[in-house]
Each structure stands twice: as structure tokens, then as C-alpha cells.
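Q: What residues go here?
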């Protein structure tokens, strides 16, 4: 009986019968010796078990088995605590873990697509003073690949397909093209789960919010290393948007919300439409909380009601600010916002800014959204600016226009009256002109983030036509062209690139005087770094004024200082730009340097040290946010 126990024990370990555990060999000793040992302390009878785990598996499979095998986790815990005795594990428990390891390893490997893996285990002799080695050798073999995918649909989607309805055919085409495990790809359990979850999520987001699985199966042929996938999806009923109900309004009109809806009653439900609707309402700056939901009641699928829950911000808001900018220096500002001026669907914003370089008083009126996401604009401004040549520009502006908002494209059209006078440091009049003009402006954004873009393009372009009225030079018609393009591109090894090109041109007779704010200057944080704010212009009668032609370009590379702090980056950059009355006369002034970036929640914070070749001096620039 004793011999049989020893043989079974040793066979379980893959050892010869001559190899035995301490608790078993004691039974083969003479009775008097066993009785003597029984009287000795337990620690003296049995030395602590010292063992190590050695896993031989290619690539990432080594880490997979070490992290998820019970034996591997036990060994990691012992190693982490500095215990080379296996955390005082009992020999019987260790035998159980070793015996279970092959089946556990096989399950883990099958989840990664290895269905014909060969697994070998061995245990070395237990020798006093030496660790016992438990070895696990894995030959995973080729991975299993998907041979075919079959999709079957039930519910309203199947009915719509039988009628060849366009929305159903488009959805199925999307499901098939976006399926994460097409034929030929490696079959793994995580990818199989992700493919099923992704398909169900797309169905629920595009008209069928109650979609479920009727059945799914993956038939694996281990010999041929192929997997055949079969899924049956019950779409449930197709949902259509119904009436919109708004809760929480006290002062603001319902039209401010209803005019932003990206869907009409009766259109097929789209989850993205609700998300777009919520984002549009949040951007109104009328509510501090917005929640939009569609009732998913199967009995009301033909016209599911949409509920908008809002909480209004305070009717009026006043802000006093103190700040400093590398462009305009220290400043103090006072702002007042009225969100429902004179009980009308308009917002009014008044801002007074006092600064050494740039002081202004501005009043902006903007209507709540009208049908088609159109908003009326009325703006007036009084401004006084002192440039680097100590010339003083005073100006007045009145603008009336309309803004049409889109997901990526914004169109602004306005007419404007602009008047400005420039006096030199000596007090002599350099320019005195006014103009009436009409402008069309397009703003395009196609980036991954509005506040922290890392990939994509933004563009701003405007075309204006007007007539100037001058006191010093001649009056006459003119046109104004302007464009700015910024490209964000992630590069290899964690680098991010930002490039920008900008240009402007006034078309008119040379003798026609143009108000200085409509002319072009360059220099500053978002122009040519290394030069003062709007310090690149045209010299005239001892003063610096704007030119009729302008171009700037910029290139920047940024990289995180540390991988664990990806929001803090270092950057190097090169800028160049110039201003003249004719493009042919532009002489580019260059600036370059290095800086630090912090990707804050409100936008990138930039601090740069730039050297201007023309001025042969260094300047510090800092700014928050991005300029389109």
C-alpha cells in the first residue's frame, strides 16, 4: 500500500520512484525512527520548501502566463514579498497548482488564438539547500484565423432588408465593413467579444436601441487552425424621433433649444444626433447643466419622445479680471453679460479693457439661435492702441451681421463701418480714414479636439468688399482678402507637429487710403515670435502702420518630457513673416526658439523664449488656447 502511494505521487510529478517528498519517505523508515521524529519539533522534521517557476514561452505569452496562471500569481506574490520559500506553501498545495497549470495555460492560449499548443511541465528533485525548479515549456504553434463570418438579422431590420429599404441596406453594409474580425484575421477571445460588442453598439446607435443577440457561435477547427463565426442579431423595432419636451426653463425661451435640434419629428433615431443636440445646447452659455434623453419604450417606437432637462445659469453675470500678456502687457478688464436682454431672445456682453498697449470698450449683442442655427450679430467697439513705435491708433467700429453655425463649418456675413486715425510719437497725423464694407468669412474645423487639437486642420478665410473715405489721401473702392491654415499632425516616437501659413492682401489703387485696422501687421504670440505684438508693419511719416500685403509661416515640433506626464511637453519652433504694400517687397523676418507646453483642460498653455533675427534680441511669449 505504501509503495503504491509513492508511485502515484512520483508519477504525478513526472519523477522516478526514487524521488520522494519528505512526508512520504518518513513512512519507509523503521518505526522507532519515525516515532523519534514524531517527538521532534515540526520545523526540525521538515525543512522549508524553496521553489522557483521558470516559464519558457515566446513573446508576450511569457508575461500572459506569468500574470494569469494560478501558479504564476502565487510565485509573483512570493517574490514581491521577498519570500523564497513560496510563502510557506504546503507541498500538497504546490502539487495541485502544478497539476492544474497545463489546463489553465491551454485556456489562456486558446483565448489568444492558439488552439494546438503543446505544453510540457517538469519538476526538479528536492535537494536540501537548492531551490526546486518548476518548469513550464510552451510551444504555441500557429494561430487560428477566421475562415468565414455569417450574419443573420431578425426583427424590423430583417423586414426592412426584405423591402430593400435604403437605411437598412446602409446599416448592414456598415456592420459588415466595421466588423472587427473579418475573414483572414487572427481569432482571439478578446477580439471576438469586442467584435460582438461593437456590432451591437452600432445597431443600437443607428435606429435600433433595443437590439440584442439571439445567438452567437465560434466553431474552431483546431487541426486546420480556422474559426467559423456565426451571429444572429435581433434588432427589435426601429425607433423614430417624436416630440421634444423641455424641462427646467424659467426665463429663456424654448425656441433657443428647439432651433438647435439636428433632427425632425419622424426621422430615424441616431444616438449621435442626441449627442450633437446636447453639445449644441451646452455651447449656448445659457445653462449650467443639460441632459437629453429619448424614451426607449417599444410601444412608442414610431414617435419616441425626447426629453431635454436643463438648469438655467444666472440671468446676469459680472466679472473683473486682472491679467498680463506678452503681447499687450498688464491689463484689467470688467465684463458684464446679460443672457436675456430686455426680455428678448438676445444676449448682451459688455467689456471694458484697460491696458498700456491696447484699451477698448466693446458691446456685443447676439441673438439666440434662429431656425437653421442662424444667429444675428450686432457689435460696437471703441479702441486705442499704442504700438512699438509709440504711434497711437484710435478707432471706432460698428458691425451688423449673421452667423450660421455648423458642425465643422461656420459662415459669418456682416456689414461694417470702420474709422481710424493714426498719430506719430510727435503727434502728427499719419492716417485718417473710414470705410464701409461687406465681408463673408468661413471658419473650418476638422480636428480631433476643439480645445487640444493634435491631428487635423483648421482654416479661416474671409473676403471683403468696400469703399473708403479719407481726409488725407483719396477715397475709393477696395477689397480685402485673408486666409489662415493650421495643420496638426502626430509623428513617430511621440512627436507632434504644428504648421501654419497665413496671408492677406488689400486690392485697391495705391492712392486709396484704408483704415489702419483693416490693413495687416505681424508679430506676437500667434504670429512671428521673437517680435513684439503687431510690431512688423510699414514705416510711414515716423510711425508704424499696417501694410497692404502680409504673409507669415510657422513650424513647431513638440514632445512630452516624460512618458508618465504626456500633458507636459517641450517644443522647438521656427517662425517667419513680413508686411509690405506689395507682396514682391515683403522681406521675411525670422524668429526661432524653444518653449514649454501644458495641455490644460481649457486649452494649451504655451511659454516660449524666442530670438528675433531682425531685432537681435530675445522675447518671452506666453498664451492660453488656440487661434483658428
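A:
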Amino acid at each position: 500500500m505504501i509503495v503504491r502511494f509513492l508511485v502515484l505521487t512520483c508519477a504525478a510529478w513526472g519523477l522516478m520512484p526514487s524521488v520522494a517528498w519528505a512526508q512520504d519517505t518518513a513512512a519507509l523508515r523503521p518505526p522507532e525512527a519515525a516515532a523519534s521524529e514524531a517527538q521532534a519539533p515540526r520545523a526540525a522534521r521538515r525543512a522549508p520548501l524553496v521553489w522557483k517557476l521558470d516559464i519558457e514561452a515566446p513573446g508576450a505569452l511569457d508575461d500572459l502566463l506569468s500574470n494569469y496562471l494560478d501558479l504564476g500569481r502565487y510565485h509573483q506574490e512570493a517574490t514581491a514579498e521577498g519570500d523564497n520559500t513560496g510563502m510557506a506553501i504546503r507541498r500538497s498545495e504546490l502539487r495541485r497548482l502544478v497539476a492544474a497549470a497545463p489546463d489553465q495555460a491551454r485556456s489562456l492560449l486558446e483565448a489568444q488564438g492558439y488552439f494546438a499548443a503543446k505544453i510540457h511541465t517538469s519538476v526538479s528533485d528536492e535537494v536540501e539547500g537548492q531551490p526546486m525548479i518548476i518548469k513550464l515549456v510552451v510551444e504555441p504553434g500557429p494561430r487560428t484565423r477566421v475562415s468565414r463570418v455569417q450574419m443573420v438579422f431578425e426583427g424590423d431590420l430583417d423586414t426592412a432588408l426584405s423591402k430593400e429599404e435604403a437605411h437598412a441596406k446602409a446599416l448592414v453594409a456598415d456592420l459588415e465593413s466595421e466588423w472587427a474580425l473579418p475573414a483572414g484575421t487572427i481569432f482571439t477571445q478578446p477580439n471576438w467579444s469586442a467584435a460582438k460588442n461593437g456590432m451591437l453598439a452600432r445597431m443600437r446607435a443607428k435606429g435600433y436601441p433595443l437590439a440584442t443577440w439571439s445567438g452567437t457561435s465560434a466553431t474552431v477547427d483546431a487541426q486546420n487552425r480556422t474559426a467559423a463565426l456565426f451571429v444572429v442579431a435581433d434588432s427589435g423595432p426601429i425607433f423614430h424621433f417624436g416630440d421634444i419636451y423641455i424641462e427646467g426653463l424659467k426665463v429663456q425661451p424654448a425656441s433657443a433649444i428647439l432651433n438647435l435640434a439636428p433632427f425632425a419629428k419622424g426621422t430615424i433615431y441616431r444616438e449621435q444626433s442626441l449627442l450633437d443636440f446636447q453639445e449644441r445646447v451646452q455651447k449656448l452659455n445659457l445653462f449650467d447643466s443639460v441632459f437629453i434623453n429619448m424614451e426607449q419604450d417599444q410601444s412608442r417606437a414610431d414617435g419616441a419622445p425626447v426629453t431635454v432637462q436643463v438648469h438655467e445659469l444666472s440671468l446676469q453675470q459680472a466679472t473683473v479680471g486682472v491679467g498680463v500678456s506678452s503681447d499687450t502687457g498688464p491689463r484689467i478688464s470688467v465684463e458684464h453679460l446679460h443672457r436675456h436682454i430686455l426680455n428678448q431672445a438676445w444676449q448682451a456682453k459688455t467689456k471694458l479693457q484697460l491696458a498700456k498697449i491696447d484699451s477698448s470698450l466693446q458691446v456685443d449683442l447676439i441673438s439666440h439661435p434662429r431656425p437653421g442655427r442662424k444667429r444675428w450679430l450686432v457689435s460696437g467697439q471703441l479702441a486705442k492702441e499704442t504700438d512699438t513705435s509709440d504711434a497711437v491708433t484710435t478707432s471706432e467700429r460698428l458691425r451688423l451681421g449673421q452667423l450660421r453655425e455648423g458642425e465643422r463649418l461656420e459662415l459669418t456675413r456682416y456689414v461694417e463701418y470702420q474709422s481710424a486715425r493714426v498719430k506719430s510719437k510727435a503727434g502728427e497725423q499719419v492716417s485718417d480714414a473710414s470705410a464701409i464694407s461687406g465681408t463673408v468669412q468661413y471658419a473650418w474645423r476638422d480636428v480631433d479636439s476643439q480645445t487640444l487639437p493634435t491631428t487635423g486642420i483648421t482654416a479661416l478665410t474671409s473676403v471683403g468688399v468696400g469703399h473708403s473715405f479719407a481726409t488725407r489721401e483719396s477715397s475709393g473702392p477696395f477689397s480685402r482678402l485673408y486666409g489662415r491654415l493650421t495643420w496638426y499632425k502626430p509623428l513617430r516616437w511621440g512627436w507632434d507637429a504644428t504648421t501654419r501659413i497665413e496671408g492677406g492682401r488689400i486690392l485697391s489703387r495705391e492712392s486709396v487710403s484704408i483704415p489702419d485696422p483693416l490693413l495687416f501687421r505681424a508679430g506676437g504670440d500667434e504670429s512671428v515670435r521673437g517680435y513684439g505684438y503687431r510690431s512688423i508693419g510699414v514705416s510711414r511719416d515716423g510711425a508704424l502702420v499696417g501694410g497692404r500685403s502680409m504673409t507669415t509661416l510657422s513650424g513647431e515640433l513638440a514632445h512630452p518630457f516624460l512618458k508618465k506626464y504626456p500633458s507636459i511637453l517641450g517644443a522647438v519652433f521656427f517662425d517667419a513673416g513680413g508686411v509690405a504694400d506689395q507682396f514682391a517687397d515683403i522681406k521675411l523676418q525670422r524668429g526661432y526658439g524653444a518653449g514649454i507646453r501644458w495641455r490644460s483642460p481649457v486649452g494649451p498653455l504655451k511659454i516660449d523664449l524666442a530670438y528675433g533675427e531682425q531685432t537681435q534680441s530675445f522675447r518671452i511669449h506666453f498664451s492660453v488656447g488656440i487661434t483658428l
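A: Context that may help when evaluating the design: Residues 1-43 form one domain. Confidence is low (pLDDT under 50) at residues 1-40.
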